Amino acid sequence: MLTEQIKEKAEQCREEIIQFRRELHRHPELSMEEYETSHKIAEKLRSLEGMEVITGAAGGTGVVGILTGAKGAGKTVLLRADIDALPIEEKTGLPFSSETPGIMHACGHDGHAAWLLGSAMILSKLRSQFSGHVKFVFQPGEENGIGGRKMVEEDRILENPAVDAVFAAHAWPEAAAGEMCVAERCAFGYPGRFEIQVTGQGGHGSWPHECIDPIAITNQIYSGLQQIVSRRLPETAARVLSVCTIHSGPQNKRNIIPDCCTMTGTLRSDKLEVMEQMEEEIQRIARGIAAVNGASARVTTAHGRAVINSPAAVRFCLQSAARILGEEHVKLDTNPHLGGEDFSEYVARVPGAYVYAGIATEKNQGTFGLHSSSFMLEESVIPGMAAVFAQFAVDFLEKGGF
């Protein structure tokens, strides 16, 4: 049975893919600058029998491996991992800590790349036993939201051959190591942003009555925005609105009331209609408060796509992953998560699912939040997730669908 062979092959490549992850961890690279990372990935893929390797995607640092089953024509499944790091100084103290000052893999993308490579190694040894195609996509630029769109729109990775299903996974501190969770619907929410520039009339700080103070007005707008989530939206809606920056005036000028003040922030929801309502409320509140005070407010808002799992893909993932991890270790997650993820570019066009790979252990509990300088990925999960990805591909190709 292929499941047992997949488990066996995953165990055989355990040491190699863990060491590969450590190599990536030592040498992290920022979004769209993953040149050495992509070179190392391409080298590994080229060593696999039957693997076609495409480099230079997404403007230079994306890598795609295409494996065709020896049994002939069939469906095409795409497995994706992101490969970029973050501008964070590592403080884990690991023996393979980042050797690049100010940059680390603080979101687990080194692990994502390692388990995708592992799945490629497994399936290359089993290609005589399946039909169809598997695309292994090592995507740059997830953290800045650029890579996914480039690979889908510019490189057309969902075509030639046309992709029938897409899967991705994220290291997940909220689940125990060895567990895998599947979001029932919203794996990652609609990511939005806003900027409000209030323009008043500056002047001397000792004569505020002759000014229209944009800082005071921005403060009123800040308070008004807090009413959106608590008073304007239904309590059943998953939603977040956070003001993250406020800037005004030149530094070290304590006696000048400036002309302008700028506020920026983020908004998130699992529902498009809620995002649109929040954007409308921001416009209404900011412009209204500014006008009442004799000022003006220029408001800009924008939002991206959410990662919405296909219901059929959710059921498929639960059943397929259970073959590798056991039913007791595969769970349905009914809570929407409001982080942003550009895998949304894939699932907006092709049915699929984004799953969460648990990494929590007693040793790293509470010390490893995503995007933290102390983030630590539990390496023991990497071979298991490589096997899960391989099982996803084999099951989909054998069934010819979900």
Q: Can you walk through the features of this model?
A:
The chain has 402 residues and is an alpha/beta fold. It folds into 2 domains: 2-188 and 306-399, Aminopeptidase (3-Layer(aba) Sandwich); 190-303, Alpha-Beta Plaits, CATH 3.30.70. It contains 10 helices and 16 strands. Strand 3, helix 4 (109-125) and strand 4 (133-139) form a beta-alpha-beta unit. The longest helix is centred in the last third of the chain and has 21 residues, at 272-292. The protein is elongated.
Total beta strands: 16
CATH class of the largest domain: Alpha Beta
Average the pLDDT over all residues and give the rounded result: 96
Q: How much helix, percentage-wise, in residues? A: 25-40%
Query: What is the structural class?
Result: alpha/beta
CATH architecture verdict of the largest domain: 3-Layer(aba) Sandwich
Domain Peptidase M20 dimerisation: 194-287
GO molecular function: metal ion binding; N-acetyldiaminopimelate deacetylase activity
Binding site for Mn(2+): 107, 109, 143, 170, 371
Pfam families: M20_dimer, Peptidase_M20
